Amino acid sequence: MFNFSQLAFPVVQAPMAGGINNPKFAAAVANSGGVGSFGFSYSSPQKISEDLLATKHLTQGPINANFFVFREVELPDAGVQSNAVSALQKLSLGDECNICVPSAPFYPALEDQLRPIWTHRPQILTFHFGIPPQGCIEHAHALGIAVGITATSLGEAIEIQKAGVDFVVAQGIEAGGHRGIFDQSTQDDSLSTIDLTQMITQNCSLPVVAAGAIMTGLDIRNVLLAGAAAAQLGTAFLCCDEAGSTLAHKDYLLNKQHRGTVLTKAFSGRMARGIRNEFIDKLESCQVLPFPIQNTMTASLRQLAVKTNNGEFQSLWAGSAYSKIRKCSTTDLMKILMEEYSAAGG
Ligand SMILES: Cc1cc2nc3c(=O)[nH]c(=O)nc-3n(C[C@H](O)[C@H](O)[C@H](O)COP(=O)(O)O)c2cc1C
Questions:
Q1: What are the tens digits of pLDDT across the range 220-276?
Q2: What is the largest CA-CA distance in the chain?
Q3: pLDDT above 90 coverage of the chain, percent
Q4: Average pLDDT value for the chain
Q5: From the alpha carbon of 127, which atom of ligand 1 is closest?
Q6: Which atom of ligand 1 is found nearest the CA of 171?
Q7: Which residues are near ligand 1 (CB < 6 Å)?
Q8: Per-residue pLDDT tens for 89-106?
Q9: b/e for 82-99, b at 16 or more Cβ within 10 A?
Q10: What number is the average pLDDT over the span 51-60?
Q11: What is the whole-number distance in angstroms between the Cα of residue 179 and the centre of ligand 1?
Q12: Which SS3 state, helix, strand or coil, does residue 67 take?
């Protein structure tokens, strides 16, 4: 079974749903001594199968397949729905953008999505937003697949440990993308990556993978000194040549560093950190539908924004330290990180 101590360099490329991960990108990280990842949360079983198969031809290194643990959700009443629709219609992006409330099923069935995992057997399987059914964990273990789950608090990490998985991903408040908090109705502890990593390593026996605002070799060294077994980097990889980030996403990461990031529910109905833009500002005090219904409802608008290269209406997920981003090939970024890590005493 996979163990972080077997890595030549303890770096995990973060799983990043929405077309960012791809076989070449993941293989470049795995061939450089780290873990390559796929954010498969919205992917069809066929796409998952194709990506894993293509990756197998490019690397023998460790690959992580990541899924969301969606919670059952219902449409709110008609008044709430119509307020949420009209908030988006007011953005008036044109006729091509047809805003309508989706109908059930609101998310893919995890059981179907995991079928290609049992066939292709990536070394690692991770989950975000909660603990998957026990049967998934047992099935993975029977096939020799290591399982990890994101925690944003010590309480979640303790639940994760009780579920009998192999590691915890400690996601600090600085992290880009969706916050992995299990229950959105509970208070968010909002702990920094370093504080959360220390808290979990001191109180749990599972290996910890630290995530959030890790951009340099020195940052990697610091989370390992705080007790982490590995560092998970998302934003740092977004401007790599192989990354599927949109043109506007790369442009804003490199050139609009004064904007900073915010946590918003506006795109998906769940808190996620991204670069502040017009969409976030305009939706700030508006009604949004629950996750992932809001995500589906904003999809046509976001797709139109990608087509027209308009960064103001795309979800530009990024961690709070994105100003330290570098534009280069994935292999070069891994080399730079390794050199910085050695220079920092690692
Ligand atoms: C564009 C983007 C998409 C993300 N998608 C996922 C995802 O699908 N699954 C997941 O577990 N985490 C996802 N995350 C969160 C990362 O796993 C990780 O917590 C985060 O990138 C760490 O912070 P950093 O971006 O500052 O490195 C995403 C992050 C970004 C930036």
A1: 999 999 999 999 999 999 999 999 999 999 999 999 989 999 999 999 999 999 999
A2: 59
A3: 96
A4: 97
A5: 11
A6: 19
A7: 14-17, 20, 39, 41, 66, 128, 150, 171, 174-178, 211-214, 232-236, 317-319, 321
A8: 988 776 677 899 999 999
A9: eebbebbeebebeeebeb
A10: 98
A11: 8
A12: strand
**Nearest residue (CA) to ligand 1, atom 3:** 16
Closest ligand 1 atom number to CA of residue 20 = 1
Structural fold of domain 4-343: TIM Barrel (3.20.20)
Q: Among 20, 174, 178, which is best to mutate for testing ligand 1, by the most ligand atoms less than 8 A from CB?
A: 178
- How much is the pLDDT for 97? 77
Cis peptide before 105 (omega within 30 of 0): yes
Residue type, 287: Q
Residue 23: asked if its preceding bond is cis (omega within 30°), the reply is no
Q: Which of 183, 150, 145, 147 is nearest to 165 (CA)?
A: 147
- Domain segments of the chain as ranges: 4-343
> Which atom belonging to ligand 1 lies closest to the Cα atom of 176?
25
- Residue 42 C-alpha to ligand 1 middle, in angstroms? 14
Q: Is 0.90 topped by the overall pTM?
A: yes
